[in-house]
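[Automated response] Your request has been received and processed.

Submitted sequence:
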Amino acid sequence: MAEVVDVSFEAADLRGRTFAGTDFVRCRFDEAVLEDAVSTAVTFTECTFDGAELTNSLHRRSAFLNCSFVRVGLRGVTWDGCKMTGSTFWECRTQPMSINGGDWSYVSLGKANLRGLDLTGVRLVEANLTGTDLTGARLGDTDLRGARTGGIVLAEADLRGARLDGFDPRTADLRGAHVDLGHAVAFGLTFGVVLD
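Generated structure:
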């Protein structure tokens, strides 16, 4: 695998480019244009994409490890089986966006607009979802163990099958959310409901 270390691609026009089998380490893609770009089995480690435009890009089995995405255009992006461990997203334009499985553990998505996303089977262990809007999202079989969820909006979301160990329903908006029996019992106990 080719390795690219400490290289700046700031403000570069990389639209439509195809990346494969490359390991980018501490590279800067700030303000770069990556519209319609495709990455396959590429690893980005401690790279910054602040202010970049990734509209309609496709990422298959790629890894973005401890990367920074600040005010990034992510409309139409597809993350297919990607590993995003430790990356930070802040004030990004995310609608619409597709996440097909993958490991998003320890990712910071605080206050992100993820309304209506299908996050079925996504691993979000210890993720920061504080204030995140997941209205109408599908979270079946999503692993949310230990995620920070204070102020999270899960109105009309489908939580059936999600792993919610450590989740406190008192700090979430769950109006109209769909839950399974196990969740209902756990939530009831949290609120002091007596189950006979």
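Summary generated for your ticket: The mean pLDDT is 94. The longest strand covers residues 2-5.
If you did not submit this request, please reply to this message.
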